[in-house]
Amino acid sequence: MLVNPSLILGLIHNIALLLATSLLIDLFWSRQEKELQFRNKLLTGVLLGGIGVVLMLTPWVLVPGLVFDTRSILLGIIGLFFGPVPTLIAVLITGAYRIFLGGDGQWMGVAVIVVSGSIGLFWRYFRPGWMNRNRFVELYLLGLAIHIAMLCCTLLLPADTIEHTLKTIALPVLIIYPLGTLLLGLLMLNRSLHWKIKRELYQSEEKFRQLFENSEAIMMLVEPESGLIVDANHATSNFYGYSIDELKSKRILEITTLPPDEASEARRRILEEEQSCFIVQHQLASKEIRTVEIHSSPITFHGNTVLFSIIHDISERKLAEEALIEAKVRAEESDKLKSAFLATMSHELRTPLNAIIGFSSVMDDENDPEEMKQFARIINSSGNHLLSIIESIFDAALLQSGEYKVSETRFNVEELFFTLIDYANVEKIKRNKDHIEVKALIPNGIKPPPVFTDRGKLMQVLTNLLNNSIKYTNQGRIEFGFSVYEKDITFFVTDTGIGIPAHKVEIIFDQFRQGDDNHTRVHDGVGLGLSICREIALLLNGKIWLETTEQEGSTFYFLIPGIVVTENHPDHTVPVHQQPPDLTGKTILIVDDMEENIFLLDRFLASTKASILSAQSGEDAVRKVKENPAIDLVYMDIKMPGMDGYEATIELLKTRPGLIVVAQTAHAVTGVKEKVKESGCFGYISKPIRRDDLYRGLAELFGA
Ligand code: ADP
């Protein structure tokens, strides 16, 4: 029999042992996440040497003292995969053990150990790219080389045993051992590739960790499902004002201002790589809100998918951008205004000039005296119109430069009003608006008081306001009047004209600004009248303001303090028909978005001795009523930004059912009265409010 069956069994047993131990090595090796250190190389050598010894414990004994096992395979593979230090140690251990076993095969055994390890090392250093060539062939050739060398080592046996040994082992050694080498080699190769990948992964994670921790950029890792912050670096901790541990116990929802569903949708989009950049707002520990730009993408970290986010604080950039946009809008606006201004001025100056030049040039050819007279009239009125524009421009410039000196005289408001009525009647005719009623409201029994102020300037303001009312009213009526409180007098001019859009109310007092600055505007004027009025108000220490509703009308108020002359009147006030009722112990809340209106009403109500509270918005009014159960009466302005008077009345009546709310309406047009009633108001008082009406109403209300 050529091959002894027990030899085959021994071999299979050996190879099985070899493969099993390779898994052991794997287990040990896989724990080594870094390149082997020298100490570890020694340890590996000892372990591998130990395995060699175990292999040699289950040999196939040819004759006592002559044993065969698979140490050649093991040592060849050790040489190939583990390098010189572990190989040398394994060779020394197994060699020593073989010497310890002794017998005839002792020197052949030691030679096989040395030769196998050396061939393995030889392969490692002289065929370095073997893995990238045909690895099956390479490993098989290695196995063949080792085992041919092994057969050569039989020469070290006693001469009489060489032939018999060769005959017995040659075939299995040349057929099975190279295959065993191939098998173990492939297994080790597979594991070594696995270790390489693991090592690279470890290294890249380590690199990432260092970058992450030492970076100046704000970075965090977020769990995609729950939004839990898995990790954050020092820059993040500095930015948000939480420690890293505090951050790691938070969910992203605790710092983002996004609602939960939007935040989880954002994480889904990052996870599915649909979107990677977001601009959101984050809240810091100090409660400050910052605008941040987040760049986020999914990464695998420690085997889990997490969202890696880099966060840039762009609050300043955002503000700068907004400022830039605002500046651009302003520049565009000023560009638009410039062309509107040029167009208006050009139109306003050319129209009268056109008439003057045109009619004066045809006068020479005209013989009809009537026609001549008419031309002269047109030229004259156009000249006057031109003069008035030029005067406005000078007036505005003079007032603004502060060079105008107030020249005070004593005169009577009644006399002023007669002049104003005459002026209005002429203007109405000039503008073909005879159908509009212009009325001075002088309450019965109230003698308009004498005042001491600059008559010319007061007249200029009132004629400007009246002129505007006539210009911007197409039907209905215009009323003007006054109310007096102690030495203060407030004039008003109210109309049922086109009104002014809310967003234009602020600007119409600026020079050359008009409610309608389109080229298609239908009304004449250069936009200086109200700015002159405001300058005059300042000059006389007064105030000018308005209330307006588009398509309903406007009321302009002009208050001049301390000009009413009272020395002729024993009670130091202008006599009024209605005495102020005594409302001691009562509390009245005035609600109006215009501070000046509150001021005026407050001055009127001062003589009733009631306690006065004020609110400048609907919301504020509702809050004040809740906070002050002592309030007996509310004067509620109807038109306010945000919560209007109707809404505020409904709200505050929920808190205090039965509370008396009196609406203040500037334009009692149809529908308003009904709405006032519907909202639960007790009644209404028309603006501009006149003092005796107010007192009369209060006396009726409180029976005083
Ligand atoms: P203008 O020469 O354009 O009348 P003003 O300075 O007198 O210039 O007024 C500025 C703008 O205010 C007007 O262009 C107009 O849009 C608006 N305005 C002034 N008074 C009234 C009013 N009674 N009714 C409606 N709009 C008015």
Verbal overview:
- The chain is 53% helix and 16% strand.
- It is elongated.
- The longest helix has 56 residues.
- The protein contains 20 helices and 19 strands.
- With 704 residues, the chain is of the alpha/beta class.
- The strands form five sheets. A five-stranded antiparallel beta sheet has the order 4-3-7-6-5. Strands 9-11-12-14-13 form a five-stranded mixed beta sheet.
- About 1% of the residues have low confidence.
- The N and C termini lie far apart (141 Å).
- Adenosine-5'-diphosphate binds next to helix 14 and helix 15.
- The site of adenosine-5'-diphosphate has 20 residues, from helix 14 and helix 15.
> Helix proportion of residues, in percent?
40-55%
Shape: elongated
End-to-end span in angstroms? 141 Å
Structural class category: alpha/beta
Poorly predicted ranges (pLDDT <50, ≥5 residues)? 569-576
Spatial order of the strands in the main sheet? 4-3-7-6-5
The unique ligands bound to this protein are: adenosine-5'-diphosphate
